[in-house]
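ENTRY TYPE: protein
CONTENTS: sequence, structure tokens:
***
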Amino acid sequence: MSTIGLDTTVVIRLLVGLPMAQFAVARRRLARAVDAGDTVLVSDVVAAEAYFALQHHYEVPKAEARMLLRQFLHSGTVQLDPKGALEAFDDTPGAGLVDRLIHGRYRSLGASTLTFERKQGGLPGAERLSES
């Protein structure tokens, strides 16, 4: 057994199925990894890039892009690194996806997040800085 990490290009092919030839190659390789008992990782950076690529290149609305990624990351086939970042994909109001991923990364390291962003500053363990 080994550990492999998926690049954004592979994640996008698996999510949208295009181009078909690359989708087929990615799907076969992922199936082989799962059959071998390999750990398949998706980093928070890849998830963030895929979120924006879905919107920009495939015109997928934000809510749908988040839902597609949430389903993929909760499928049991792949693991998000850090694991605590999974909650960033929950459909809750407040800070945006990337701000939640940043916050999740810092929390996984035992750190707090310092920010000027109002919504991100409202996340548990975050501190909103103020000029006053």
Summary: The domain at 1-81 is CATH 3.40.50.1010 (Rossmann fold). DSSP finds six helices and five strands in the chain. The longest helix spans residues 20-35.
